[in-house]
Backbone:
């Protein structure tokens, strides 16, 4: 059984507003797997006692974590650690819509799995040393049998020990769900860069389109708790029938 976290002392904290310090320590507990994806966190009364703060301060911290999709409230049941699955929350990280603005989650096909070493650029994205051991996963996502995007995913072997092509193929849900269930790694946010590109022979073949046509290239780094980079993904997207859409509020 883990020792309870000490009561917070505003004067001795990190200099953050008290609710942000509470939030930071909740994230630390999540990072240490004290509460795993799908677990209900302790009640407000228990957390207030644990941190030595008022209900208002605690709720402000929880509100932030809910807004960031790290926690999920279920009316009448409690607050839970968010889980990646094939549901509405999935579209938080899927930003493609068809001509009518509708989102349909595509079918994922794993087309390649290999081990290698990180070059300087990949190492910088994942916070690794150049030459660190990595996995490379190639995928194609299709809607109604038509390829939509080709992805190249890079993962650290140290973060995902024992990952195999079989485990990736036999995952019960999404890749991010596999990261959660098998490795305790929860993707909580992403950073993306988007630019225009031209489909070379390889990506044209994977996308079933003529070489030389324009595609959208998206470079994504996925982060877990405490801003730890856990995945680097480069996607090439056929935008003839779909567009990249993201609402910002």
Residues:
């Amino acid at each position: 059984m883990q020792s309870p976290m000490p009561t917070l002392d505003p004067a001795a904290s990190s200099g953050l507003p008290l609710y942000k310090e509470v939030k930071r320590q909740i994230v630390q507990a999540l990072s240490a797997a004290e509460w795993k994806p799908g677990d209900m966190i302790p009640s407000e009364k228990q957390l207030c006692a644990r941190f030595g703060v008022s209900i208002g301060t605690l709720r402000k911290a929880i509100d932030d974590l809910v807004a960031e999709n790290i926690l999920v409230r279920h009316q009448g049941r409690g607050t839970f650690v968010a889980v990646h699955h094939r549901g509405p929350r999935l579209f938080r990280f899927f930003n493609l819509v068809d001509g009518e603005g509708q989102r349909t989650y595509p079918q994922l096909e794993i087309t390649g799995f290999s081990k290698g070493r990180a070059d300087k650029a990949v190492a910088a994205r994942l916070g690794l040393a150049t030459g660190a051991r990595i996995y490379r996963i190639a995928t194609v996502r299709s809607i109604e049998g038509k390829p939509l995007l080709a992805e190249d995913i890079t993962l650290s072997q140290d973060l995902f020990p024992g990952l195999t092509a079989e485990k990736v193929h036999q995952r019960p849900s999404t890749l991010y769900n596999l990261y959660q269930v098998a490795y305790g790694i929860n993707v909580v946010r992403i950073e993306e860069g988007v630019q225009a590109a031209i489909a070379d022979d390889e990506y044209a073949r994977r996308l079933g389109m003529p070489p030389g046509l324009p595609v959208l290239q998206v470079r994504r780094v996925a982060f877990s708790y405490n801003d730890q980079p856990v995945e680097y993904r480069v996607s090439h997207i056929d935008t003839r029938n779909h567009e990249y859409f993201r609402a910002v509020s």
